[in-house]
Write a structure and sequence with these properties.
The protein has about 325 residues and is of the alpha/beta class. The protein has a single domain, classed as Alpha-Beta Barrel (TIM Barrel), CATH 3.20.20.140. About 40% of the residues lie in helices and about 10% in strands. The chain has helices at about 15-25, 40-45, 65-80, 90-100, 120-125, 155-170, 180-190, 215-225, 235, 250-255, 285-295, 300-315, and strands at about 10-15, 45-55, 105-110, 130-135, 170-175, 195-200, 225-230, 265. Helix 6 links the parallel strand 4 and strand 5. It is globular and about 50 Å long. The relative contact order is 0.16. It binds zinc ion (ZN).
């Protein structure tokens, strides 16, 4: 698949719709008003490939692998049932692009619910999970999250997790990871030749929230050939005042000044946020974002950020063919 000049719809690297479906069984994916990302809104917004995060809140208690399985089941019964097949291989991705259809990717946000068991990780891989966010905001058995005050990095077991992901072909995601963890992963990733992503993080220099990436972190992701998902969490975009869609531009501009033009994608964090950028309240509004980008940039550049950078990355980083169980 030659990505350059290719026409496809938008690719988004992070949303939490599965979590909402999991917590409230009365919600349906087809067109529920409570969802920022529904099948209907994805269609309206022109999104062709959406990554769905599996998030297991600490509040859910014991038996946590079950909550992962339940969210994968919800992907099957809710998302796939709406005509968005799970994409797990390059072959499936190429077929999706060729057919002009829509699809979904699965990511696990936080290794917490794997409970240190790497067989569970392999099961998740077999079931189609292709991204793993190592932590959420707090510490878990693998590493410290960004809000953990002691600021630790990886545990020994966490480093084994990284190695297992590199071997399996699971792409690691550093959004929410502590800075120490970030730099430890950079070293491991450099040795393994495995780029990683920050699926939903902006620039710290533009908006100084701890969830955003420092210049050095952005440069490291670029150097390794990873991807950064510009996110729509209002307080990661601008520290104060009402946030508009054009407030995303300084993040794009600044990251490009650090060499990230070919490494930027979008990772909305829709359904993971209570507040929204004005005019960018749900997935349907992605078409307005596209129009806004086209006021400032060429179509070729906007297409890179909207899908080409994402496709190019997935094409080399997910497995070539589907492994059947
Ligand atoms: Zn998140």
């Amino acid at each position: 698949m030659d990505v350059k000049g290719l026409k496809f719809g938008i690719v988004d690297f992070h949303c939490d719709a599965l979590s909402k479906l999991h917590q409230d069984p009365s919600i349906h994916f087809s067109d529920d008003q409570k969802l920022d990302v529904s099948a209907f809104k994805l269609k309206q917004g022109g999104i062709k490939l959406q990554c769905f995060a599996i998030f297991v809140s600490e509040r859910l208690g014991q038996g946590r692998i079950g909550h992962i399985l339940e969210q994968i089941r919800l992907f099957r019964t809710e998302v796939e049932a709406c005509g968005l097949p799970l994409v797990t291989s390059r072959q499936q991705l190429a077929a999706l692009v060729a057919s002009g259809g829509s699809g979904g990717l699965l990511s696990l946000e936080g290794a917490d619910a794997l409970e240190g068991n790497l067989s569970y990780l392999r099961c998740c891989y077999d079931l189609g999970v292709r991204f793993l966010g190592i932590t959420w905001n707090h510490a878990n058995w693998a590493a410290d999250g960004i809000m953990e005050s002691r600021g630790g990095g990886f545990t020994q077991k966490g480093k084994e997790l990284v190695q297992a992901c590199h071997e399996l072909g699971i792409i690691l995601d550093v959004s929410h990871l502590s800075p120490k963890g970030f730099w430890e992963l950079t070293e491991l990733a450099e040795t393994a030749g495995k780029p990683f992503i920050a699926s939903h993080s902006n620039s710290f220099s533009v908006c100084n929230h701890p969830r955003n990436l420092s210049d050095e972190q952005i440069r490291a992701i670029v150097r390794l050939g990873g991807r950064i998902g510009i996110t729509f969490v209002p307080y990661f975009v601008k520290s104060e005042g009402p946030v508009k869609m054009t407030d995303l531009l300084p993040h794009l501009e600044y990251m490009c000044s650090l060499g990230a033009e070919n490494h930027l994608v979008f990772g909305s964090d829709f359904d993971g946020i209570d507040h929204h950028i004005a005019g960018l309240e749900n997935a349907a509004k992605y078409s307005d974002l596209r129009e806004m980008l086209l006021k400032y940039y060429s179509g070729a550049l906007a297409d890179k950020w909207l899908y080409q950078n994402a496709l190019k990355f997935l094409q080399t980083q997910i497995p070539a063919t589907k492994k059947t169980l």
